[in-house]
Amino acid sequence: MLFYLTGLVFAMVGCSYAAVPLYRRFCQATGYGGTVQRRESVEEKIARHTQDGTVTSREIVVQFNADVADGMPWKFVPTQREVRVKPGESALAFYTAENRSATPITGVSTYNVTPMKAAVYFNKIQCFCFEEQRLLPGEQIDMPVFFYIDPEFETDPKMDGINNLILSYTFFKVSEDK
C-alpha cells in the first residue's frame, strides 16, 4: 500500500511538471483558445510566399493585451498598444514585466489570438510564451514578440471584415524561490 501511494505521489508531481508543455502541444494541435495551429513552419511559409511573389494591400491592426493571474505580484504591460501590419510582413512588439514583490518569482505565460478563426494566420517567429521567466525583486525586463501574418489571410473569405487582431498574454506564477 505504501509503495502504491508513493508511486501515486511521484506520478502526480510528474504530471504537474508536464502540464505546461502538454497544454502547449494540445493548444497548437487543436487551436484551442485561439492558439495558433502548426502545420507548416513560419520559415517555410515566408520562403513560399517570397518565392511566389505574394503582395498584399490590406492593413491589419494587431492590438496587444497583457494580464497576470490572481496572486501574481507582477506588473505586466505591452510597450505599445498596437501595430499596423500587412499580411506577408513581419512585425516586432515588446511587453514589459516587473516583479513588484520582495522575493524572486518565476512565471510562465500563455497566449491566444482573437478572433479565434484568424489565429491560424498568426505566426510567432520569436516569443517569450511558455518559457519560464525568473525576475528578482524589483527587476524589470522587456520581452520581444516577433510575428508574421500569413498573406493567405487577405484572400480567405472567412477573414472578410476582420481588420483587427488581439494578441493576449497571461502570466502565471510557476514557483516562488526563496
UniProtKB/TrEMBL annotation:
It is a single-pass membrane protein. Residues 1-18 form the signal peptide. GO terms for cellular component: mitochondrial inner membrane. The keyword Transmembrane helix applies. Its main location: mitochondrion. It is found in: Mitochondrion inner membrane. Keywords: Membrane, Signal, Transmembrane, Transmembrane helix. It comes from the Eukaryota. The keyword Membrane applies. InterPro entries: CtaG/Cox11_dom_sf, Cyt_c_oxidase_assmbl_CtaG. One of its GO terms (molecular function) is copper ion binding. Exerts its effect at some terminal stage of cytochrome c oxidase synthesis, probably by being involved in the insertion of the copper B into subunit I. This is Cytochrome c oxidase assembly protein subunit 11. It comes from Salvia splendens (Scarlet sage).
